[in-house]
Design a protein that fits this description.
The chain is built from 13 helices and seven strands. It is α/β, with parallel strands linked by helices and 311 residues long. Strands 3-2-1-4-5-7-6 form a seven-stranded mixed β-sheet, with helices on both faces.
């Protein structure tokens, strides 16, 4: 089990909200390193289906499949394909689901995957084996398109300056490595007081664009929620504001807490649709100080949970 020995962010909190029980069926929508999956399988004599688009994660899952024979199944695919993947396994409903969004530590720490600006590697960033690479993206899109990607998916205020520098540089030589791209970004953006590397937001933006992460999240939440039985819980851990915004809005709407019209507006007197879920986390759960010290990557994590109400 050493290949799956790392502890995922907010693991104990996620497990507490999910409440695994014997005989139930759960979904781990983002297998990654398998930390959540193993915790769920250890917590109860339940069955678990996991999904991941990364072939490397699928290979790691063989350890769990052998150890928890008959109780664990892994599906290679995107989280936007939940219903299709589970239907193929004959799973029509779930007693709970958990998502650990974003890029996994295994992907970040492997220079060959091209996710990190801290280590040099090919400018790839694909979570799966298909689709365009980050190199193709930065070497082909227009300056305005690139600026929009950096601003929308990275919330990068210097998006236009960075896009201009990238376009000017690629006219001379195409980008092929992470260090090359990070160097160009750092040449036009100074470090701020937070100490965050100037390339952080741009790399996040390109990764999200390459993998259509936000579109996948929206689809995954809808599909997972539709499969939950009464009393089942949906637990989601996000790592940046774009992810958390999608989760927060979806949970608010599903629990009948979506921002409504003004109390002075006559439309506010009209009753809305009955909520299908109960919001369990009025405020997101964050990692404690000890976890953040042990794992600095955990500092931005937020956990939200909701429960399916009786029909």
């Amino acid at each position: 089990m050493s290949a799956l020995s790392h502890v995922p962010v907010l693991r104990d909190e996620a497990l507490a909200w999910l409440r695994p029980r014997d005989g139930a069926c759960y979904l781990d929508g983002t297998f990654g390193g398998g930390g959540y999956a193993r915790a769920i399988l250890e917590a109860a004599a339940c069955t678990l289906v996991a999904i991941d688009r990364d072939p490397a994660a699928i290979a790691r899952a063989a350890v769990l499949a052998a150890h928890y024979h008959g109780r664990f199944k892994i599906c290679e695919g995107r989280i936007s394909e939940i219903c299709k993947l589970l239907e193929a396994l004959g799973v029509a409903s779930l007693d709970g689901a958990v998502f650990d969004l974003g890029v996994s530590s295994y992907q970040i720490d492997d220079p060959a995957r091209g996710f990190s600006f801290r280590q040099d590697g090919p400018l790839d960033m694909r979570m799966g084996g298909a689709g365009i690479t980050a190199a193709t993206l930065v070497n082909s899109v227009s300056e305005s398109e690139l600026a929009d990607i950096l601003y929308e998916f990275g919330e990068e205020k210097a998006s236009r300056r960075i896009a201009k520098a990238i376009i000017e540089r690629r006219r001379i030589e195409k980008f092929t490595t992470t260090a090359d791209l990070a160097g160009v970004i750092r040449s036009v953006v100074r470090p701020d007081k937070s100490g965050i590397d100037p390339a952080t937001r741009s790399f996040q933006a390109l990764r999200i664009a390459v993998n259509d992460e936000l579109g996948d999240i929206e689809s995954a939440l809808i599909q997972a929620a539709s499969l939950l039985s009464p009393g089942a819980r949906l637990v989601v851990v996000s790592f940046h504001s774009l992810e958390d915004r999608i989760v927060k809005r979806f949970f608010s709407k599903a629990s009948g807490r979506a921002p409504g019209v003004s109390r002075h507006d006559p439309a506010g007197l009209q009753g809305g649709a009955q909520a299908a879920f109960k919001l369990l986390t009025a405020r997101p759960v964050s990692p404690g100080a000890a976890e953040m010290r042990a794992n600095p990557r955990a500092r931005s994590a937020k956990l939200r949970a909701m429960e399916r109400l009786p029909a």
